[in-house]
## 1
Amino acid sequence: NAGVMQNPRHLVRRRGQEARLRCSPMKGHSHVYWYRQLPEEGLKFMVYLQKENIIDESGMPKERFSAEFPKEGPSILRIQQVVRGDSAAYFCASSPTGTAGYTFGSGTRLTVV
Amino acid sequence: DAKTTQPNSMESNEEEPVHLPCNHSTISGTDYIHWYRQLPSQGPEYVIHGLTSNVNNRMASLAIAEDRKSSTLILHRATLRDAAVYYCILRDVDYGGATNKLIFGTGTLLAVQP
């Protein structure tokens, strides 16, 4: 039973490029959450999705960031026109219901050069 | 979301018990107490959660004060692999799903000495 799979593990982008981070939840989990952890800081909630629906995006920056969780396939966190301040570890988590404990992936470490 | 207060850091010796405290004086009746930990360079890992009664699982025990204003995560025999940041988080049960996010604080950095 594979855990939450995130890829790539490491991603390097030049300023102005787009970054696409993928998250495959655990089998049977239909709730997906994205968190960001800046260097030397705690985890900050970004967005909560269920299949084809964004439930809570209160932590998403207003511009350049978007997330989706299509009916088929992984959840995608997209960052357009990346800037140096976007360099961080991005963690995805999933749960079988909205009230169950989360299972986190190992994260994608984004470096913007 | 109700706030939690944890010590910034704690130290323990290997194979000794560790008690990690958490204060949550503004906890509401529907808040569950969750604990997660984050090992270096990894994603957070669920440890345990509870509402009112003490809870035990293979990883740890959770002792909840009678007034629920504080709780303690107990690692019965610390190992070097338990060195991590431990987060105490209050999570409101919203069966409608709108408040399912976890709000992480700064946690307690546990160092385990051999």
## 2
Amino acid sequence: NAGVTQTPKFQVLKTGQSMTLQCAQDMNHNSMYWYRQDPGMGLRLIYYSASEGTTDKGEVPNGYNVSRLNKREFSLRLESAAPSQTSVYFCASRTLTGETLNYGYTFGSGTRLTVV
Amino acid sequence: RKEVEQDPGPFNVPEGATVAFNCTYSNSASQSFFWYRQDCRKEPKLLMSVYSSGNEDGRFTAQLNRASQYISLLIRDSKLSDSATYLCVVNGGYSTLTFGKGTMLLVSP
């Protein structure tokens, strides 16, 4: 059982380049999330998908787009990378039913992105 | 007031010590509460959920005070392996979680 798989694990981009971060989960979770983590800032929500077919902005969505490809996969795209997007990106998933409100997220291992 | 606030760290304690982490949250409608642990350069992992009546898991005890919007985590008999950053987490909207910035714990021999 792989849980949440993120690719790539590391990436260096030049300013203005584009890329897509991939995320897949095999736990049959309904909801998926993208966070970024910066020193001193904690984890901040970029976008989320509460269920297949829906996506919503989080706290810091500017400069990003997302696609919920199917129930398993949720990708994050940087159309024109900027140095301010240098960060560690985490994908997470969760299932939401009444009794599982006491379950948190399962995270992927992260993507370390550097934009130069 | 920030949504989830935690004690600034780091906390430096010797092995065997008892250490307490505190957290306050601003959304009185929050229903789900968690403590996560994050090791250096790793992803956060769920340590324990926090229930209204308080709950214990081995050396770890979590408490919730809804009236004061306060959550705590107590670690007894600290081990070297407990060294990590502890994140207080509260549900933001129905389907999202909001994370505190975390408190680093360093347990020394």
